[in-house]
TrEMBL record:
The lineage of its organism: Eukaryota, Viridiplantae, Streptophyta, Embryophyta, Tracheophyta. It comes from Hibiscus syriacus (Rose of Sharon). PANTHER family: EXTENSIN, PROLINE-RICH PROTEIN, GIBBERELLIN-REGULATED PROTEIN 10. InterPro entries: GASA. Pfam families: GASA. Belongs to the GASA family. Keywords: Gibberellin signaling pathway, Signal. Residues 1-25 form the signal peptide. This is Gibberellin-regulated protein 10. It comes from the Eukaryota. One of its GO terms (biological process) is gibberellic acid mediated signaling pathway.
């Protein structure tokens, strides 16, 4: 009986975490489309916005600025010490 319960809990945990990742991908995609709508190089903007969103689980509102809304997004830096997130 305990084995069945433990198996059920593990399967539930795995399914719920994968559903969270799918919903987060949809969230990031829609937020990054808005964030990058006025970018000169949209593909690059969407790429880095997506990376930052997945890591920070948030994207600042608007197409520019407002990074105070998401400190993690604001504080991520590239290898040269410049802001990573658009």
């Amino acid at each position: 009986m305990k084995l069945v319960l433990v198996t059920f809990l593990l399967v539930s945990l795995i399914l719920s975490s994968s559903l969270f990742e799918v919903s987060m991908a949809g969230y990031c995609s829609s937020k990054c489309k808005t964030r990058c709508s006025k970018a000169g190089v949209k593909a690059r903007c969407l790429k880095y916005c997506g990376i930052c969103c997945k890591k920070c689980k948030c994207v600042p509102s608007g197409t520019y600025g407002n990074k105070h809304e998401c400190p993690c997004y604001r504080d991520l830096k590239n290898s040269k010490g410049k802001p990573k997130c658009p």
